Amino acid sequence: xxxxxxxxxxxxxxxxxxxxxxxxxxxxxxxxxxxxxxxxxxxxxxxxxxxxxxxxxxxxxxxxxxxxxxxxxxxxxxxxxxxxxxxxxxxxxxxxxxxxxxxxxxxxxxxxxxxxxxxxxxxxxxxxxxxxxxxxxxxxxxxxxxxxxxxxxxxxxxxxxxxxxxxxxxxxxxxxxxxxxxxxxxxxxxxxxxxxxxxxxxxxxxxxxxxxxxxxxxxxxxxxxxxxxxxxxxxxxxxxxxxxxxxxxxxxx
Length: 253
Description:
GO terms for molecular function: ribosome binding; translation initiation factor activity. It comes from Lojkania enalia. One of its GO terms (cellular component) is mitochondrion. Belongs to the IF-3 family. This is Translation initiation factor 3 C-terminal domain-containing protein. The chain has 2 domains: 57-149, Ubiquitin-like (UB roll) (Roll), CATH 3.10.20; 152-253, 2-Layer Sandwich (Translation Initiation Factor IF3). α3 runs parallel beside α4 (201-217). α3 links the parallel β5 and β6 (185-191). By secondary structure, the protein is an alpha+beta fold. It has 5 helices and 9 strands; from the N terminus they run αββββαβαβαβββα. The N and C termini lie far apart (127 Å). The longest helix is centred in the middle third of the chain and has 19 residues, at 127-145. The strands form 2 sheets. Strands 5, 6, 7, 8 and 9 form a 5-stranded mixed sheet that branches. Strands 2-1-4-3 form a 4-stranded mixed sheet.
């Protein structure tokens, strides 16, 4: 008889004398699983993220590339050189890194009709620079929406040409002086005259001296050095920060 064979007599004796004293690992019937131990209570915090759903594409804030519906433009190239009367189909730029941005729309008359002898001015700008401008504008908008007035008065922009007449220059600089005394930031955009003669180097230098003299008259006003762009006689941007002081307020009265 093989060693693994158990006789029917042995099985009967096992059921009678041994099996009743062996504890089953399960309580209840053979088909009933034991009740599981209760799991410890786990508190799960739900973190809610406030998603900014606003779409901030550059094309939503600037007129770019094919959206510029002009046949001929004045162009400020990537090196800040002013090039008048350039047919749009001849304008070339690296579309991977740059955009063609509408800098100044074509002037219109009181009826909204464009002047036939006036042109829009466009500029080739890097996408990084445009993104920086947009983020700055959005940040200012968020501050205004929160009622945060710590950013100070809004920025003003003045456009001048190098060959500007004396009376016109005086009028523009008076406005600039008023803005600086109010503590505003003033961006001065200088460029060649769209139509007519080109200013001499001496005339350009005199315009810059006149601007600087106004800044000196406004106590606390300074030039933001890192913001100066362009070249004398071409397209140039200079930014000044005004300061509202008691002396300036007295001058306004």
